[in-house]
Sequence to fold (256 residues):
Amino acid sequence: MCTLIVLDRVLPGLPLVAASNRDEFYSRPAAAPARVEPQEDDIPAFVAPQDLEAGGTWMGLNARGLFVGLTNRRTPAPQKNRRSRGLLVTEALRRPNAGAVAQDMRQGLEGTYNPFHLLYTDGRQTFLTRLDERGAETRALEPGIHVVCNRDPADPSSSKVRNIQKAVAQIDLDAPFTRVFDGLAGVLAQHGAGDPLEHTCVHTLEYGTRSSAILALGEERWRYWHAEGPPCRAKFRNLTRLLDDLRRRSVRKERT
Fold:
């Protein structure tokens, strides 16, 4: 995933809203979002798409309300013998909350993975772990609007994060959620002039935006929309039933 927008504890009744684009080579196989049930009784189930080439995923939500999203950082020489970064997401989704993931992220990352950003939140705490050539850093994020791509926001060679931040700032967050949803979907579908990799919706001959997602975790209900294909063309399908089933089975599991 190369674009992640998180409205973190800024909308009344919606502690978490996440909007994302997955940018990847067209030839890399993937499976649509589905429910994953771990074998262990004390590990929460989760909903996520799947990378069919190296395993893992780029984003997911578990039955306890923990959201995890990954963006790969650009690096001049990625090491092919390192673990798939997508496995970080599936392993984090096995944890009960964001604080537990943060503890895991404070050790054993250097030399194991190529550079990445990992954002994880449970509606009460939010953390961002960054790994680059200098090492790993984990920090807590204050409530607000977070935009994570594949380079640092202050990177002078990239205007992508700044453009997304400006576009999100134009969305009326006091409006009904249907209008907020439309605003986020519009940001995900944006194109522009110049380098196509600096657009939110990416199109090149071999690489581009493969799918999009918008999640809204409310106090009463969780909702999920997924577009298979670039959001400038593909329609968002309502996959909320996956989250309804996730919560329903989780409640039954806790009662038994």
Remarks:
- Residues 76 and 89 are 23 Å apart (CA to CA).
- The domain at 3-255 is CATH 3.60.60.10 (Penicillin V Acylase; Chain A).
